[in-house]
Structure formats: C-alpha cells, structure tokens
Amino acid sequence: IGPAEQRIEITILEVVDLRKNKNLMQLLNVPKNEEAVIPEGSSIRIHVTVQLPPSEKAPDDNVELEYKPQSRVDESYLFEYCQYVSTERGPSRFAKLVARRMNRKRILFQ
Fold first, then answer.
1. Up-side HSE of residue 105: CA atoms within 13 Å toward CB?
2. How far apart are CA 58 and CA 45, in angstroms?
3. How does pLDDT run across 43-66, given as a tens digit for each residue?
4. Per-residue model confidence (pLDDT) at position 38
5. What is the dihedral of CA 67, 78, 108, 34, to 10 degrees?
6. What backbone torsions phi and psi does residue 107 show, to the nearest 5 degrees?
7. Is the overall model pTM greater than 0.70, yes or no?
8. What angle is formed at CA 27 by the lines to CA 11 and CA 41, rounded to 5 degrees?
9. Residue 68: exposed, middle, or buried by beta-carbon count in 10 A (0-12, 13-18, 19+)?
C-alpha cells in the first residue's frame, strides 16, 4: 500500500497449465493420471476471496473479486488487469481491525 493510497492492488497476470488443476479435474471427473480436456471456446473465471472486511459496517465479511481472462494463448489464460481493495488507516477501530487482519495475508483463489 502506498502512503498516499488506502487500497491494495490485486493482479492476476496469467494462469498456465489449467489442464492439470486438481479442482478442474475433479469437476470434469478426470482420472488422476490424465489431464483435463478444456473444450475450445470455454470461458473461465477466477473467484478471489480476500480475507479483509469490505467496510466498517460489515467487519465479519470478506472482499470478493472476480477475474475474467482478456485472452488465451495456447494453454495460458492472460488477465493483465488489476482490481483494488479499499483499506483504512489511522487510529479508528476499523483501521486497527484491517491492520490486524493484514498480518494473515490470506487470499483464496477458486
């Protein structure tokens, strides 16, 4: 976080070797020793859960983001854009809550 900004930038640049992803293989019922076949023209999305509260009014919730690829090159999906999560600094109770949760540094990609 830059000193003048009160936000965190989250960027996914590229997803490679999606055919070997365990979750995708389970979804498509692919045996463990094989690779998933992703049909041509299929679209993917990545759901990101950032374990930080979105606002002072919802301190127990998480920030949810969704990413869609901009292009596909061979077996790689290119995203090349960022999204921002607003944060708060200072002495307020909410700012202290965000600072405590930042120490966890946990982001879930699905």
1. 1
2. 26
3. 788 888 888 887 778 878 888 899
4. 77
5. 120
6. -130, 130
7. no
8. 65
9. exposed
92 against 109, higher pLDDT: 92
Please name the residue that has the structure tokens 């299929």. 42
Phi/psi for 101 (5° steps) reads: -75, -25
Residue 63 burial (10 A CB sphere; 0-12, 13-18, 19+): buried
Q: Which two tokens stand for residue 59?
A: 């301190």
Query: How large a percentage of the chain has pLDDT more than 90?
Result: 2
Q: What is the model's pLDDT at position 67?
A: 92
> 44 Cβ partners below 8 Å, 6+ apart?
15, 18, 68, 69, 77
